[in-house]
Design brief:
CATH topology of the largest domain: Butyryl-CoA Dehydrogenase, subunit A, domain 3
Radius of gyration: 33 Å
CATH class of the largest domain: Mainly Alpha
Number of domains: 3
CATH superfamily of the largest domain: Butyryl-CoA Dehydrogenase, subunit A, domain 3
Number of helices: 29
Number of strands: 11
Length: 669
Amino acid sequence: MALKTKVWDAADHLETDADMVAYLDAALENGDSTVIAAALGDIARAKGMTQIAQDAGLGRESLYKALSPAGNPEFGTVLKVVHALGLRLHAETVLSTGVRPHFPLKLGLTPVFYLTMSLRTTTHEVFNQTPELRGHNRYVGNLALQEGVAREGAGWADAWLIERGLELGSEQMQEWATQANRNPPQLQAFSATGERSDTVLYHPAYHALMAYLKRHGVSSGPWADPKPGAHVARAALFQLFAEVEGGALCPTTMTYACVPALKREPKLAATWLPKVLSPEYDSRFLPGPQKTGATLGMGMTEKQGGSDVRSNTTFAEPAGQDEWGETCRLTGHKWFLSAPMSDAFLVLAQTAPGPSCFFVPRFLPDGSVNDIRIQRLKDKLGDRSNASSEVEFWNARGWLVGEAGRGIPTLLEMGTWTRLDCVLGSAGLMRGAISIALHHAHHRSVFGKLLVQQPLMMNVLADLALETEAAQSLALRLAGAFDRRSDEREALLMRLLTPAAKYWVCKRGPTLAAEAMEVLGGNGYVEENQMAGIYRQIPVNSIWEGSGNVMCLDVLRALRKHPETVSALLSEIEPALGRHEAFDRHVSWLKDNLLSQEHSEASGRRLTQGIALGMQGALLLRHAPDDVAEAFCASRFGSEAIHSHGTFGNLLPSHNLEGLIERAWPLGD
């Protein structure tokens, strides 16, 4: 009786469409077909039976029949009446009514049933979906990054990084990243009239991203304005940008890494260094000296060699001296030459004394195009916004950089800087992945609770947060060593920790990204979600500039060549002793292995991993909150590690899971 009263009360007010929807809602809640039919009739009369019949293209008799539970008209006639009524029924009311067991039985599969169900403008309401992560400050929400910046001597850049963090969290920046990757570069090998062009066309969004990086000094800022903490400040911005887009960072990194080698060649530096250090990005295909700013690339890898660059077959023949220095003509190929629209490249080629490094510009000093022929662009898993190419040199001109026959040491120096950026990039991508996962968990409900309140999901998120903070801390400590490399101890740490950190952080990145993607379920696996792009991008850092085994061999080489490196490393780790028993046991094992006279190549991965984990544990014990350090050491060095087998979400419930999540995501959504 109460339901019928509600229906009749609603019938007293049928002046607007909203009144009519409320009336029909009440009738549907009642569930009786007679009541519903009466409500439909009242609504039709209120809207004007003659007008409704006219709009439906029906006679009045057919209209009355369509509104009758017993009328049994053609279904098409019912649909005509639906469109003529033009009502918008609340989807949630229909859905909630539709699941009542008695509703279809009382109403029956009559035309009135179809009519009432047809009044919906959608099949369902979209709810319990996570809004896109946009409009937040990536730096302000990253406490571990802020603390690391201050700790490593770049506190002066805090306000600058807050501004950049807001920009990088903006909708505009995300849109540029999306467009640059959905519209990959296109090779234009020939002009319309058949001449070789050898140019690459990029989407405007890619140029916008490159301009942003150049303007804010990511490609050369610490060289243009050297000061204590400059490389750390740049490292922080690099990580923040990596959360958004990775392709534009490739030419940015190569430009950054080439500067030390270029500075040692005065003739080349006089012309090129001002363009490289310029904050202006100039995408025009012109001779470098005519541009407002320049970018540099590298060409080392060949088909037959890969990381074994000593086996390269590209050769250089002497061609005299000119205003840029000693020049040669290069013939050969490069299997991977990224960012082929860079203004010049540092290239490895064979000479009589051995492999040598050459500066190979796209244009010669007289303004003519250097004979660098782009064969094709790589179809890559990730890094899609950035072009990677296969090229051939047809007597291309190059200028010697460094001593002839000493190209590999020059290459290794550049590789040290690019490997730093591999660590930074992976740490940034890890932070980007966990940010999306944490944002999702704060919005998505399941089984009556938010995901972030579900105990098992809390464990996964807290463990991901630990891994990310450890990666960020190690990456910034490494950047600090680069900043302070004039100190002998810091230089030794830089030499050892660069390959160790690249090995470990870049190895952990893909595993973390996969787990973070799983937090989102299927939504994380589609290209419209930022997570898919992170998952495709993150493996490249483990491959580029030396894969895992190459990094481990480099660690062993550093220990053999500079035995004093062990003391430098232990002086960094041992101050954290006495704070966690499991960590102390790990350091004891690590020390025994480091002091061993023989470092087996076959055990290189185990030792390298031990160095990286030891550094991460020491950094967190010395500088992170106790909850973070305790959970990390227990799960990476203690009995918990035995049960994890490298997966996430195996922390003991006794750890402060909620606190770990809150530290990683203070925004809280």
